[in-house]
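Exercise 3.2. Students should predict the tertiary structure of the chain below and write it as structure tokens, then compare their answer with the key that follows.

Predict this chain's 3D structure.
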Amino acid sequence: MTAVADAPPALVRSRHFSRPLAFAAIAAIFLTFTSASAAPSPLYVVYQHLWGFSATTLTVVFAIYVVGLVGALLTLGALSDHLGRRPVLAAAIGLEVVALVLFLTAGDVAVLSVARFLQGIATGAAMTTLGAALVDLNPPHAPGRAGLVNGIIPSAGLAFGALGAGALVQYAPAPTHFVWALLLGAMVIAGLVVLRLPETSARRPGAAASLAPKLGIPARLRADVFALVPIIVASWAIGGLYLSLGPSVAAGVFGLGSHLIGGLVVTLLCGTGALTSYALRGLPTPRVLAIAASLLTVGAVISVAGVEADQVVIAAVGTVISGVGFGASALASFGTLALLADPHERGELLAVALVIAYIAFSVPAVIAGFAATSAGLQVTAVAYGVVVAVLGALALVAQRLRSRRAATA
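Answer key:
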């Protein structure tokens, strides 16, 4: 018999973290992945200056990440429901390490694109697995905690990663290398932590079949999921603009050349969103959704006014208001999904929601990149803001109609 088999049960159990500690560790790994995904945003301007590419190329590199991420969500989103959370998470961390090494050594757009694509695959595989693991480990005395963490971490990670990378690019040595070295170290630590995590999802057959691309929504959940689509699209569309072209707009429209400011642009939106998700956690979901739709619309209108008038303070106020809407949307949408799904459905349903979110995150941003090359950053930012305002208004109408139907039923 093996040493593990001969060991007392208490000793075997002691090799893994307790459930509360495992929950915290999963949340920390989740934050590391989302922070790493935002780190290139302040660096795009640096790479653009070093290698001389256009805004179109910039947003294409941004979109390559989303292609990898959405592809992973479509094919790998349910894999951890079959193989278990730990093996899928370990593989995602390994691929992220490869991507970070490529970032560290990148000398042209081609290598940067490959690194971003691999990072997208790793992040897509990790996000659904981590989100499902959080729900698996959710404390019985706090049934909404996993939904809250799943709602907060994506925006918090984007804020932390963009601001941290912006500060390192501005003040640390080797701006295109140091940030990647730090993230590489953090990801290696994450890999070691996975060795101590308990497995929360039993193996079951069908792993190979689960790799077939699909967007599976159980019939009983479709009405609830479809009702969330407008607000998810509105919020993540504005997130895509800020992460792809936000620092470029700050430099090109307002003349703010500091890389720290470039990261702060993203943080104003995503950091405000994370704080909002926490602050509104006790409110009923329909009310949070109404707040999200209303403030996304108002914030986009104010941001457009600031860009059109070349007034950075007005644009910043609009960004903060949009950030409140962004965070409220994340809280209500992902929190609702976390509570709706049964354990064996969680990975796949979160994958569906994230596919919708990241398509909205990337496709409009790529269109904006082409528009910025031909029409200019200011015109593009104004037009994009108007579209987001309209989407927010449509989301508000959709939620009111849903509330009326629910009241009638």
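Discussion points: The two ends are 61 Å apart (CA to CA). Residues 1-13 have pLDDT under 50 and may be disordered.
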